[in-house]
Design goal:
The complex is a heterodimer of chains A (121) and B (396). With 121 residues, chain A is mainly α. Chain A has 3 domains: 3-48, no CATH class; 50-88; 89-121. Chain A has helices at 3-12, 14-28, 32-48, 51-83, 91-97, 101-120. The two termini of chain B are 32 Å apart. Chain B is an alpha/beta fold and 396 residues long. Chain B is globular. Chain B has 2 domains: 3-112 and 265-344, 3-Layer(bba) Sandwich (FAD/NAD(P)-binding domain), CATH 3.50.50.60; 116-262, FAD/NAD(P)-binding domain, CATH 3.50.50.60. Chain B has a 5-stranded parallel β-sheet. In chain B, strands 15-12-11-19 form a 4-stranded parallel β-sheet, covered by helices on one side. The chains are: A mainly alpha (121), B alpha/beta (396). The interface between A and B is medium-sized, with 21 and 20 residues.
Chain lengths: 121, 396
Amino acid sequence: MEVTDTLALQGENPGLEAFLNKLQPLLDGGRLDNLVDLASLLSDLVDLLDAAMVEKLSVQFEQATALSWNLGNAIRLAKAQTRQETTPPSLYGLLLLLREPQTRRGFALVLRVLNAIGHQD
Amino acid sequence: MANHILIVGGGVGGTMLANQLVGKLYPEILRDQVRITLLSNSPDHYYKPAFMYVAFNQFFKEELKRPERSLLRPEIDFQVQEVTRFDFAGQTLHTRSGKRFGYDFLVIATGCVPAPERIEGLQQGGDHFYQYEPARQLAQRLARIEKGRIFITVSFPQTPNVPHQCGIAPVETTLMLDDYLRRRGVRDKVEIIYTYPTTAQLLRNCLFLQRPTGEILPGIFAQKNIQFQRGFTLGKVDPDQRIAYSEEGDAQPYDILMATPPIRAVDAVRESGASQAANQEGWLPTNHETLQVYGLDGVYVIGDTVDLPVSKAGGACHNQAPVIADNIAGEIRLGTTVAVYDGKVQAAAQMGLNAGMPLTYDYRHDVLPTPPTKLGGLLRNGFNRGLYWAVARGML
């Protein structure tokens, strides 16, 4: 594009002129290159995203959020129940908590988690 | 005196609302002043939008369902129960097991049921993608067709200004079908004809229930050599001759009839006496702003069971749930509703097998269509494969 064409374009479009003026310091300091390269990198990342990659990322997201949500819910509810006791349970009181079938189910879960961790070591 | 909030229906509306209510009313729950129960007729939760992908062999059943219990906060009492009768006067629900549930606040989230039997011959002669087994049957037919005509019809409820399930689905599946047949290498020998009925809510003789999108469809269809026809209201099907008859007097042969069927509310809702809808469809009279059911105290409705003009889709539930949660909390804490629904619905439409188009609209604004893109398609794919479950849990 001829310099005269560029100047004519700027004259017609004050928005473009303001934008180019804003970019000038970046050009002068050699910093515009990074931005253009970043745009290029983002474009490459978008190209890398195909259906299979998105599926993997989404499943990871779902697994991570499901786990943290599950744990967070459990801790929140347990905190609420524990806070309500003015004095903590005695040792015998702790054993009595195992009477609840859901507690025993949770205990079995924890033991199996430990087992799986052992497997992966 | 605990306030008992009872939610009927374990679809996306009921599930996300139950979770949001727990968050909102946590102080009362801790003090045993509020308890929340969710009843569903199934222990499993299905991601229903995936059924349309099932029709193209793009989704496994195992991937589109989860146990409902895993999507609910532990504070919610979840029970698998089929509600058989709503006794609004007695504020009690009766279930098939015989167990009864009293309530102080009730949310009806029972969704809708495809009813192809309401058009003569459609059940035997047509296919649809709104449930798993029908979608599997359609998938087998689409995988085998080598030549012929695939005829697409859309049936609206008879109740005025009520949409069919998921407004954009017929367009999505038509474009997906085009891509799918091209991929199979048979597109040049298979005709695709997209039709739309004469009456589509407030519009007449159009190709879509909103004007801006309807206006761009001819261009998109022409590009892909998809034929289209206005003013075809499916009236009758001859399953043996494979002919679709319209109420306008037209008769069209087909090899596969991909028909968005008539829909209705579940039986218990239809028989509840609260509906004013036409044709025994059962939609509940809904206050379009507060989402309360007119004429009943403490009863709300969410999602497909409303009689509102907005889409029967998860993208509507997503914006209705926070309003209902706020209103129930407002009634409990302040004695009044506090929030208003503006009709907003949003989605990422699957415009072909790989392209997507995010869309949004509300009571006052139609969808402004934008060019479908690969990124839009990836967003939809990401939603299908992961983001949806976070939405159901009330996280997003």
